[in-house]
Specification:
Chloramphenicol Acetyltransferase, 2 domains, 4-stranded antiparallel sheet, OB fold (Dihydrolipoamide Acetyltransferase, E2P), alpha+beta
Length: 406
């Protein structure tokens, strides 16, 4: 029996996918549920599992865009599973009597050639001052000799020939990367994007983490107490204080949300992924950290789904893990705001009239000015800063042990 395998729908709005990589070859025997291909949609890279066991015949090439529901391969389910394959033949060693052909030696340049390029003493001095090699000039003197006038008129080469590789390679972007590029350009062109900045003294959070992180990890089955839970809790608090930041433009309307679905940018094998932590305003520190860990593992293992990344009312991105000191993050449309975290650096700051050294982080809020005014944007970022610098009172309700479920 010949089974036609068709492209399943990765999501409601997706009409076609692109064959990124075939994981099997034409004529291979595949097992049921074996991953046979990686397909790119405009939202994620997904694995395509075999629907039955048998010998496969490919009907699409890598890089082909195929419609959802189209046949991409055939599986002959009646074909017997091969018992084994013959070992690959071992290449014979070259015979001792066979001599390697010698490359022809280059014929020495005639002495006259060098003589023709030899500059006069005056020309040599000028060329040395210009750092020009005589071989780079065609002489106009007798028998091609380089004259003083040739040296005066010589112009240094603008290039710097080094003999190194100058190869280029043209690689087609994946459908996911093309869609990301399209959305980033749209975000710049279709929104009135502005960025406001502030800085956060991370000493209070560091003190809390140092005091409770070991107990937290032991109590919650290996889930760590990281910075993301503090930032997520600070953001959800600020979104409730400034609901315009938690809204979106839809034509002539503003769509407001009474929930906080926080998109968290994570790095995956196929590039940046932005899975969503649903109803983050209702999650505890443990709940936020466990959900981020779950989504990060799925992204790392290539198991992230379209549903995991659909929606989101606000985004947090952490460029600090890569060493970024400061940046202007781009809005993740159709959202209206994104918070950028950066690396933590010890810097001198003024505290109660004295100079002290503290771990400081710059934070940036990019927002759509069409729907968020300066008062809301600055007030939101100040609220985030206040919560992070006073986490015991504003994020833990003055009871860290209870907040951390210890």
């Amino acid at each position: 029996m010949i089974l036609e395998m068709k492209v399943p729908s990765p999501g409601e709005s997706i009409k076609e996918v692109e064959i990124a990589t075939w994981l099997v070859k034409d004529g291979d025997y595949v097992e049921k549920d074996q991953a046979i291909a990686e397909v790119d949609s405009d939202k994620a890279t997904l694995e395509l599992p075999a629907e039955a066991s048998g010998v496969i015949t490919l009907k699409a090439e890598e890089g082909d865009a195929v419609a959802v529901g189209a046949v991409v391969c055939l599986i002959d389910t009646a074909a017997a599973k091969p018992s084994g394959s013959a070992p690959a033949p071992v290449a014979e060693a070259p015979k001792a009597e066979e001599k390697k052909a010698e490359a022809p030696k280059a014929a020495p340049a005639p002495a006259a050639t060098y003589a023709a390029q030899a500059p006069s003493p005056a020309a040599r001095k000028i060329l040395d001052e210009k750092n020009i090699q005589p071989s780079d000039i065609v002489g106009t003197g007798k028998d091609g000799r380089i004259t003083k006038e040739d040296a005066v008129n010589a112009v240094p080469s603008m290039g710097t020939p080094t003999g190194g590789s100058r190869g280029t390679e043209r690689i087609k972007l994946s459908m996911l990367r093309r869609k990301v590029a399209e959305r980033l350009v749209a975000a710049k062109n279709d929104t009135a994007m502005l960025t406001t900045f502030n800085e956060v003294n991370m000493t209070p959070i560091n003190n809390l983490r140092n005091e409770y992180k070991d107990e937290f990890k032991a109590k919650h089955a290996g889930v760590g107490l990281g910075y993301m839970s503090f930032f997520t809790k600070a953001v959800t608090r600020a979104l409730q204080l400034y609901p315009d930041v938690n809204s979106m433009m839809d034509g002539d309307y503003k769509v407001a949300y009474d929930f906080c679905d926080i998109s968290i940018a994570v790095s995956g094998p196929k590039g940046l992924m932005v899975p969503v932590v649903r109803n983050a305003e209702n999650l505890t520190f443990r709940g936020v950290e466990a959900e981020i860990k779950r989504l990060a593992i799925k992204a790392r293992d290539g198991q992230i789904t379209v549903d995991d990344m659909t929606g989101g009312t606000f985004t947090i991105t952490n460029g600090g893990v890569f060493g970024s000191m400061l940046s202007t993050p781009i809005i993740n449309p159709p959202q209206s705001g994104i918070l950028g975290m950066h690396n933590i650096i010890e810097r001198p700051i003024a505290v109660n009239g004295k100079v002290e050294i503290h771990p400081m982080m710059y934070v940036a809020l990019s927002y759509d000015h069409r729907i968020i005014d300066g008062r809301e944007s600055v007030g939101f970022l100040v609220a985030v800063k206040e919560a992070l610098e006073n986490p015991v009172e504003l994020l833990c309700d003055n009871n860290p042990k209870k907040a951390f479920e210890l």
